Amino acid sequence: ATTLGASAAESGRYFGAAVSNQYLSEAAYANTLAAEFNSVVAENSMKWDATEPNPGQFNFSGGDQLVNWAQARGMKVRGHTLVWHAQQPGWVQNLTGQNLRNAMLNHIAGVANHYEGDVFAWDVVNEAFEWDGSRRQSNLQQQLGNGWIEEAFRAADAADPTARLCYNDYGTDAINAKSTAIYNMVRDFKSRGVPIDCVGFQTHIAANENLSSYQANLQRFADLGVDVEITELDVGQGSGQAATYETVTRACMAVARCTGITVWGVTDKYSWRDDNPLLFDGNYQKKAAYHTVLAALNNG
Ligand code: G3I
């Protein structure tokens, strides 16, 4: 096929982009997004600070706007993210003990229940591990102890039994200490029946990233019985950018349980990075990386 989304769909996969609502009124942005992608994720508007600015007072306006925009165009929506140490509203940051636990569980219930039927997958927990494989010493970890990730997944399953529930992280682009710690957690969850369906690999990487174990890493997770997804792909500029995008895409295509790819933005004009890491340049022109990704989606 001739677009990213349609090409991915031919193998039952999706190809998505992270979206900030403020750009949807820009014609070139909206047209590129609608023409090329078949999935979206909110870059910020479904996070805790956006969806529950005050305790128990939910604000779904930004997320709902994106869901409506996507559904009107036949596009799927990923959910990002229910629990994260960053972008917590101020009122959460100083909670302790059972108060923080109740806030987390109530937040998951409120947001996941609201979007039931609208999102096909949730990043239930985002970025809970350090490079050395230890747990990140966030307020969640320090106040709630090791069991908080399991508690979050059980709460998400109760609130939305239909969405696929993912653990999502970065720096997991190789078989390394961090990805192995997550692997061990997923294996433990599967063995004890903790509801987890998928693992997200953010894949914020450099043009010269060593991806020699990237596919094998995806495959070892898939072999645990979870789907894997490339959730926030972007690759820094440089001579290897197009080839690196191609390697990641080919790896997903080669792993049967790799269900789709999301790039973390549409255009280099609007990226959280300043090194032109996306598939369309600032004028919405297709870059070399666009063409290698499209070919990889079509050739397997
Ligand atoms: O909305 C406010 C605005 O009102 C205010 O005037 C402005 C002033 O700084 O800030 C705006 O909020 C910013 C928000 O993006 C929306 O633009 C925040 O400061 C800024 O920190 C926030 O950055 C986001 C970042 O997550 C927060 O950690 C990025 O857009 C977003 O791309 C990034 O996404 C993360 C994923 O969620 C998780 N994985 C890593 C990825 C990249 O960091």
UniProtKB/TrEMBL annotation:
Instruction: Note the superkingdom of the native organism.
Output: Bacteria
**What EC number(s) would the UniProt record show?**
3.2.1.8
- Active site: residue positions: E232 (nucleophile)
**GH10 domain residues:** 1-296
| Biological process annotations from GO | xylan catabolic process
Q: What family does this chain come from, according to its entry?
A: Belongs to the glycosyl hydrolase 10 (cellulase F) family.
- This one is known as Beta-xylanase
